[in-house]
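Notes to self after the call with IL:
- keep both proteins in one doc
- input above output, always
- annotate only the second one for now

Protein 1:
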Amino acid sequence: MAQKKLITMTPKELSRYEVIKRLLKKEINGTQVAKQIGLCVRQVKNIKARVIKEGVKGVINKNRGKPGNRRMSKAKIDKIKLIVKKKYYDFGPTFAAEKLDECHGIEISNEKLRRLMTKWNLWKPKPRKKNKEYRSWRQRKEYYGEMIQFDGSYHNWLEQRDGIIESCLLASIDDATGKITRLRFVHDEGTIPVFTFWKEYVEKHGKPSSIYLDRHSTYKQNQKSVFDDPNCLTQFQRAMERDLDIRIIHAYSPQAKGRAERLFKTLQDRLIKEMRLAGVSTIKEANKFVKENFIPKFNAKFSVLPQKKGNLHKSLTKFETAHLDKIFSIYNTRVVNNDFTIRFKGKYFQLSKTQPILVLRKVGVQIEERINGQIFISLRNKYLNYTLLPARPEKIKTKIIAKGKIRYSWKPPADHPWRRGFIDSKKKVKQTVSVN
């Protein structure tokens, strides 16, 4: 008895065989078969001929079990392995594939490189996230400039090539298009660095309709007593809302401004490695690199088209342009002393005798600390004339050192006036006893 041969077929091939059988029975024509199984008429004719000749095996793909014609050669894989291990050992598969194509002219798909890097222990597949909290998707704004998301991120951006462990990157991204509108490396997220960032921003792009940011102390008063007081503003709120008429929106969670948070996650991967490859080692070089190289390349790859055409950035008025340095200044209030001096940050400023306005003692004046460090003192919108006094001489502090403790051996006698009260009390006690 002849031994039966087992044929393995996929559900797709079984379905295709049933259709071909109907074609052989002339229940349907070749055009109908081609539409049913998603092939052209010529391929259907070839399969029909093979089924007539070989039977059910005719529908099985002839390349099954054979190596693919477009498979990557071992020499190419070894070359990729050498390059990746040397230069892109900490890159993600997608970014590494881009760099192989851009810098070395080697084309490889992201998934193929992902499998290879996993095999070489250069990439660990991420586990699937468990959604512990429900969050709904927020639709993008319709126009460019309608809302700008802004934030700062402390990180080891230059990998200590400048000797600094951690620096801060200020970033703004348009909500409608996902375009990076500005990046700037600074030492901290204080008022002066933020003012410098936004002064240059509005000079180049204009004023956005709104800015979406977190509740950092630079942007929001967080003390409980003034938390929701609309009249108690930070320097940033005063400059943006009151002076430039830009709406400030504060997020209640990092997920609310997710576009900015995801941007920093991408930058902490791509930007750091791009600056390493470019040999960037100082903050000045980094600011030049992101402006001239990184931002245009990033926006060309990741930005999207807005829902509606248009730019909602507002141009600066003539008044705002003329007073921009004043707007982006830190305001403080001080009192004029009796000798017409003002103390500010440990320095003394002597008001001149001649002033554009009457200045009285004990009157409150406004001090404007500009971005460039200049100090302006004003009273009722008039700038006062002053000179900076030299530092006051320090007082001589003499330290007295005792040589040792002096012990007195003198002891007051029994009839000393200090002891009279004690002696008199004893006598009274004796007299009282004798009477009884």
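Protein 2 (the one to annotate):
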Amino acid sequence: MQAKHVWPVVLMVGLALTRIPGVLPVNFSAVYGLLFCAGVYFSGRMAWWLPLATLAVTDLGLGVYYHFTAGTTVLQPYLVVNYAAYAGLIALGRCFRPGASWFSLLGGGIFGALLFYLLTNTAAWLFNPFGNPEYTKDFTGWILALTKGTAGYPQTWEFFRNTLLSGGLFTGLFAGAMKLTAASEPQEEPEPVPEEEAEPAEPAPEEAKA
């Protein structure tokens, strides 16, 4: 089986495994980098339905897990914003060519993680689903949501740091693996074009008789 068919499955299995609680540190996620890479390397509609379906299945599993362990609802309203951000990461990846340099892809993955952080934290400040008193509807409240967050929880700047680190790490790892795979695959040589049969030479005109 060709690598272009194997890598999408491997990538999504890896993404699902990293979402198991306790596998990665808190607020350290492979989602940002791997969704960006899915947009870069997956072809056609697969770039959209395969990663989003993987996230939907794992989010459902996480919702059931936290429902029984923490008493939360299975599906949270903020997931709508998350999926809009997920689609944005894939769309950003579609703007890059697989043949782009590793540094360009790394920068794209980090930029996507930054956008995801800004979008989701701005939505948390704007809608404030948990009624955090710190999230006042002004510029100060927005900056607070992006840097400190609400009392009793880790500060959001730590989430920002881990978002950039994980986005860059997983983008760099997967983009590097894809480039190494492409370099190791034998290049297909073009089929030789059959030479046209030589046309018989026209007979030389007879010399004029005296």
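Annotation: Residues 35 and 90 are 6 Å apart (CA to CA). The mean pLDDT is 84.
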